[in-house]
Amino acid sequence: MRTRITLFLGIFSVMALSNAIVPVLPAFAADSAWSGAVYSAYFLGAFLSTLPAGILSDRYGRIRMMRIGLAVTVVSGLLLSITTTAVPALAVRLMEGIGAGLFVAPAMSLVNTGPDHERQSGYLMALLNGGLVLGLIGAGLLAAAFHEPVAGIFLFTVLSIIPAVFSFLIQEPQAPAAVAGGGVPAFLSLVREHRGIWYSSLVLVGITGVVTSLYPKFSGAAPDLLGLWIAGMSVATIVAVLIISRFRFDEILAIQISAILMVAGVMVSYFSPAGFLVLGFLAGIVMIAQMAFLSRVREQQGTAMGLFTTTSYLGMAVLPFIAGIIADGAGFFVAFCVTALAAVTVVVTVRK
Predict the structure, then answer these.
(1) Crossing angle for the helix pair 32-60 and 301-330, to the nearest 10 degrees
(2) pLDDT tens, 177-195?
(3) Under a CB-based contact definition with an 8 Å cutoff, are residues 200 and 10 in contact?
(4) Cα dihedral across residues 23, 75, 209, 244: positive or negative
(5) For the domain with range 2-168+189-349, which CATH number is right: 1.25.40.620, 1.10.357.10, 1.20.1250.20, 1.10.3210.10?
(6) pLDDT tens-digit series, residues 201-213
(7) CB-CB contact of 170 with 63 (8 Å)
(8) Three-class SS of 120-177
(9) SS3 content of the chain, % helix, strand, coil (to 5)
(10) What's the predicted TM-score (pTM) here?
């Protein structure tokens, strides 16, 4: 039970805190480029930390890395709660992302190596996205109710203290598996062998970040309404992961079909918030397919999950920032079109 609280409440609270800033981004940054930078800084931090966390979890244990990640999350959340300007917010978001990366990679590795990993990964991803939903809705509603942009950020920081405490009450369920033929050659072999998966993770997950980061400025909607709109993406993802994780299917084909359909999802989102539902559902299929495919990497599971989350966070860090620059220079329609075209490249790069 303590392990489940650490894993599942941990992933929920970390993700809720990460998204609590989205509905109130204009309070931290006035233009699209700065909003994109503050939003993306979190994912840059996670990108920098998640691969080392995965590698270290293979060697020294997953629980130890999860403890450090949750502790960093709590501290960064407290700091963000007293920050309302762009530059300090960017620095703290970077720190928050580092904490998330240190937690997420070993947590996913722990789940993906256990019995019934398909269903357990579905639960983990559902709670991950549930945190994103509650982070958006809660932060938006609290900001509107109390006229305080950081109210939701503080609430989810307090919530993250619970799994942080529980993480110190559990032990590693089994000794970390030794990495066969470890070191740089094994790592490079893993990168080469599954390069299509890493690229699909970067682009397809990054696309959801693009639409999320552009929408506050693009729509001009109030924070509470904006939070509900964007939350629909994560609700759709929850539905997808809970359904798809109960079936066996061709993972590569599922990723390719989802990439094609994401082109339509991006363009629908330009005209209607209903596009978030399409993108969210497809993202859920993609993530479960990627995790199921990578579960075959038994001896380097921490490293594999580190690479998986690293490329996901890299996409969330780079693509929204680039899209924000394009939106400022060429307009939102061009930014959406370029994002849609990026999904097409996945179809020809991901292979078995």
Answers:
(1) 170
(2) 444 445 677 788 889 999 9
(3) no
(4) negative
(5) 1.20.1250.20
(6) 999 999 998 988 8
(7) yes
(8) HHHHHHHHHHHHHHHHHHHHHHHHHHHCCCCHHHHHHHHHHHHHHHHHHHCCCCCCCC
(9) 85, 0, 15
(10) 0.80
